[in-house]
Structure to design on (227 residues):
């Protein structure tokens, strides 16, 4: 069974204080790992897809990296508008479709 | 850019009633997914369709059914509603062959409240 574990559950940062979110996964064969941002009561917003260990992707203050067992979402000099829940999800090779299995998310709060 | 459209955005039903949720995917997207997100929980996969055929089935109750139509929009039909069905229901769409790792783009969700 595919498993995704995110840590920490919640993270409070001061504006400009860089940090990293962790996503550990167990899947028989990884087709892709996805990062989403979700604001309260809204749909997840796509951020990144990573396919293979060693891959990195960047978007503004966010950088996602992937190893064979985990992914990190690095946030550099965050701003209050970066406050949200960040979800990690995996897509496994053995599924007939393309379902995503999500972690429980990291709730990030950035204080001004 | 066009996004996934879901309707209605909010729905209040009583126990044992039925509900129909609609999803209009991003133009040209051929795959639709349905997810359920309970309060404080992560999204759970329910079911997906590729080219109007069911492509994958997750933890969808037997009381629920879904289909994808010729214009690629999808409907999730929920019957004999229970209090535990209260949740956010998201539709997502992607472009690509079944089993591909194309990104899934989520709609704004339908908040279902069962009283």
């Amino acid at each position: 069974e595919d498993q995704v574990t995110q840590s920490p559950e919640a993270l409070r940062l001061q504006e400009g204080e860089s940090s990293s979110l962790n996503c550990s996964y167990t899947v028989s064969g990884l087709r892709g790992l996805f990062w989403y941002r979700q604001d309260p009561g809204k749909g997840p917003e796509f951020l990144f897809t990573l396919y293979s260990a060693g891959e990195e992707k960047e978007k503004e203050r966010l950088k996602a990296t992937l190893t064979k067992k985990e992914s990190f979402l690095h946030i550099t000099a965050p701003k209050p508008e970066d406050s949200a829940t960040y979800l990690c999800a995996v897509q496994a090779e053995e599924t007939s479709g393309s379902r995503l299995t999500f972690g429980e998310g990291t709730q990030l709060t950035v204080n001004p | 850019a066009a996004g996934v459209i879901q309707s209605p955005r909010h729905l209040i039903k009583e126990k044992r009633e039925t509900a129909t949720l609609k999803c209009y995917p991003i133009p040209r997207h051929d795959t639709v997914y349905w997810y359920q997100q309970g309060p404080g929980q992560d999204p759970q996969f329910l079911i997906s369709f590729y080219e109007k055929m069911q492509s994958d089935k997750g933890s969808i109750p037997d009381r629920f059914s879904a289909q994808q139509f010729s214009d690629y929009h999808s409907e999730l039909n929920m019957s004999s509603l229970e209090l535990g069905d209260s949740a956010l229901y998201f539709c997502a769409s992607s472009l690509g062959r079944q089993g591909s790792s194309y990104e899934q783009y989520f709609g704004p969700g339908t908040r279902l409240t069962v009283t």
Q: What stands out?
A: The mean pLDDT of chain B is 93. The CA atoms of residues 7 and 22 of chain B lie 5 Å apart. The radius of gyration of chain B is 13 Å. The longest strand of chain B covers residues 87-94.
